């Protein structure tokens, strides 16, 4: 089976920032290197610049310029079009994307191309109107901006990627690799995808979603007047706590506490407590060898079964899978009042490499 051509967009107008090279390299690695013993023919990869086709590698702006003979005209006619990312100013400051890119994306879609975005590339697909009425995702740090700027898009910040048939989107960084391997699985079958993942030393399929990488202990904003009661609650998570307990501690009515906490953190008091308990459980799983039962007790989530229930519902993986994904890196007392910042992007390959190995 011929998997067809893959056109990867390179936004050249301000150069390719070095921090965006990771997303750009993912489709190049997956689709650009022939694997004749797995599938022949392999994909036909083309890097398509938004600037003029170049024959040299001169740099522009603060980033890099790639030597490629392909331009936006080459998006039309490709079987798959991938937008790895867009420049930060287009996401953070609302700087317009090149109009020619938006036009080319629409034309490629109308011509029957499968449209794919990695990380912030979703902003380009959304600007082209290709995500209207669809479920989509992006890096969890940018999903709120995506939802606000494009209200017709159903943004899901909890998943690693979304497959909506002819339009697919992924979360940031390594989630782009998850999606690219998923495309190989769709095109060439599980055996080929599993063997390719093994060669890349990554899992063919990771359990859970990007919710497991979000630091639940950090609110969107903070209300200084609530600081003392929130700090007190964090040090008493192992005890039964109610909204009334927090309101009494804050010297306000439960209704006022609810309104103030909703404004300060964007969540209700009960959801805030649950987030804090989950954050404590994550910390204990990462930094101690305590049993699942003890982790549930110290985090205030109760029994091991209750802990598993909330982890699967909120984080997307079981406590045991989470512990394997984030092995202990530093000693800490399980009764520590503080919640140290956790590295959110350690690889989970070692923890989940056996999760989809039937064809390996």
Automatic annotation (TrEMBL):
Low complexity: compositionally biased ranges: 347-360
Keyword Mitochondrion included in the entry's annotation: no
Gene3D superfamilies: 3.40.50.880, Homeodomain-like
Transcription regulation keyword on record: yes
Keyword annotations of the record: DNA-binding, Transcription, Transcription regulation
SMART domains listed in its UniProt record: HTH_ARAC
UniProt cross-references to InterPro entries, sorted A to Z: Class_I_gatase-like (IPR029062), DJ-1/PfpI (IPR002818), Homeodomain-like_sf (IPR009057), HTH_AraC (IPR018060), HTH_AraC-typ_CS (IPR018062), INH-QAR (IPR052158)
Residue segments, region Disordered: 325-360
Domain HTH araC/xylS-type: 227-325
Coiled-coil residue spans: none
PANTHER family found in the cross-reference section: ARAC-FAMILY TRANSCRIPTIONAL REGULATOR, HTH-TYPE TRANSCRIPTIONAL REGULATOR RV1931C
Protein name: Helix-turn-helix domain-containing protein
Species: Streptomyces melanogenes
């Amino acid at each position: 089976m011929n998997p067809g051509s893959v056109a990867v967009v390179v936004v050249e107008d301000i150069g390719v920032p070095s921090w965006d090279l990771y997303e750009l390299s993912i489709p190049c690695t997956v689709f650009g290197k022939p694997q004749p013993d797995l599938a022949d023919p392999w994909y036909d990869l083309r890097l398509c610049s938004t600037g003029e086709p170049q024959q040299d590698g001169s740099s522009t702006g603060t980033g890099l310029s790639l030597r490629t003979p392909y331009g936006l005209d080459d998006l039309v006619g490709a079987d798959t079009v991938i937008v790895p990312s867009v420049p930060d100013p287009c996401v953070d400051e609302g700087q317009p994307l090149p109009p020619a890119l938006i036009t080319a994306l629409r034309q490629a879609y109308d011509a029957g191309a499968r449209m794919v975005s990695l990380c912030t590339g979703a902003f380009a697909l959304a600007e082209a109107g290709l995500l209207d009425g669809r479920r989509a995702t992006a890096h969890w740090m940018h999903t709120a901006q995506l939802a606000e700027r494009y209200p017709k898009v159903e943004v899901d910040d909890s998943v690693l990627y979304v497959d909506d048939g002819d339009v697919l989107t992924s979360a940031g960084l390594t989630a782009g690799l998850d999606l690219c391997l998923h495309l190989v699985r769709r095109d060439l079958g599980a055996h080929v995808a599993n063997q390719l993942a093994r060669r890349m030393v990554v899992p063919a399929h990771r359990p859970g979603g990007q919710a497991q990488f979000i630091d639940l202990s950090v609110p969107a904003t903070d209300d200084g007047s609530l600081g003392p009661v929130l700090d007190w609650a964090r040090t008493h998570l192992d005890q039964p706590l109610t909204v009334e307990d927090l309101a009494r501690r804050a010297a306000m009515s439960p209704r006022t506490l609810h309104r103030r906490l909703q404004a300060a953190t964007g969540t209700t008091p009960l959801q805030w407590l649950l987030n804090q308990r989950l954050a404590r459980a994550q910390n204990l799983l990462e930094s101690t060898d305590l049993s699942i039962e003890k982790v549930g007790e110290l985090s205030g989530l109760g029994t091991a079964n209750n802990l598993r229930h909330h982890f699967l519902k909120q984080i997307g993986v079981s406590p045991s899978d989470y512990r394997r994904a984030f092995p202990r890196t530093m000693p800490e007392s399980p009764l520590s009042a503080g919640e140290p910042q956790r590295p959110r992007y350690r690889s989970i390959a070692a923890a989940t490499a056996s999760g989809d190995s039937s064809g390996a």
